[in-house]
Amino acid sequence: MTRSFPVAGDGPRVLVVHGPNLGALGRRDPAHYGTIDVEGLQSDHEGAIVEALLGARAAGVAAVVMNPGALAHTSYAVRDAVEAAGIPVVEVHLSNVHARERFRRHLAIAPVAAGVVAGLGPASYELGLRAAAGLVGRR
Ligand code: DQA
Prior knowledge:
The protein has one domain: Rossmann fold (3-Layer(aba) Sandwich). Strands 1-3-2-4-5-6 form a six-stranded mixed beta sheet, with helices on both faces. The protein has 139 residues and is α/β, with parallel strands linked by helices. Helix 2 runs parallel beside helix 4. The chain is built from five helices and six strands, in the order ββαβαβααββα. 1,3,4-trihydroxy-5-OXO-cyclohexanecarboxylic acid (DQA) binds next to loops.
């Protein structure tokens, strides 16, 4: 399911994207992820995330904060969409992906992201949003 929560304002727009299984936050493995309440777009579908990234700029979005979930480790389609987005994309992870299973240490999207914040729980999103605001000239 794709859920979106548009927020109207007159400042630069930042889109927060959550990848697969992040719709289950609060129910899923709370030892790793805790609970979080962030508005944005969540989809379990790679193609929906690609479309959101490719359409973001034309939709007036200035920057994206994205937790790609497991797509971070596998998706060259999302990586290409981040590269093509034409706006900064900050990658965030709730957990420290470098301290977990070996497969999580490979980050397919990170090399084309504006930056990566990982391991700080909900603060990863907060810092990602602050970074995005800085990247679009607002602090
Ligand atoms: C995650 C880390 C990923 O490895 C995992 O597949 C997730 C959540 C995180 O926020 O820590 O779905 O992106």
